[in-house]
Amino acid sequence: MTNIREILMFYINHLYTIDYLFFTLVLIFFLLILILSLFARHKPFLAFFIFFLAFILSGALGYFGYNFLDKKIRDRSTQILSIKNLQSSAMLAIDFDISNHSKYNFKFCKITAKIYQKSNPNDNILTRYKLQFIPIKIKSLILNDLEKGKTQIQRISFENFQNNDNIDIKLVSKCF
Description:
Elements: H1 2-14, H2 17-39, H3 44-73, E1 76-86, E2 91-100, E3 106-117, H4 125-133, E4 137-146, E5 151-158, E6 167-175
Antiparallel strand pairs: 1-2, 2-5, 3-4, 3-6
Helix pairs in contact: 2-3
């Protein structure tokens, strides 16, 4: 529950005005479709279908619209430069760069590194999906002030990491 609260507070503190306007537009779209379902209340199946459609369309519009705005307004890229597995200290170090391709300076960037275990060909389908979607380790790094057109090289280190060559590493960034 605190994780959901932290995520909500993160977005409330860092979203731009255009993001709030977009989410208001999605809410108005949902309410308009809901009113349309009220007009069809004498046909219960049609009213329920329109009501169900309101949730699906509003959710899709919110998800894909936010991703579109994120790519247009806050364009950025991350690239892994090197992965070092230090066996003497049981540490994994990931060197990466983050570039700001947008028209605006970023005041805040949160880069999250996720380590996933690769699946074996003889694993069952549930194990493969579990290993694909659930990371074994997660660590975040917070950057302040990434200027437009600039690139910074950073490092995320995982302590107590056993030597394992059977891993995938993904970087996710959120910049505002």
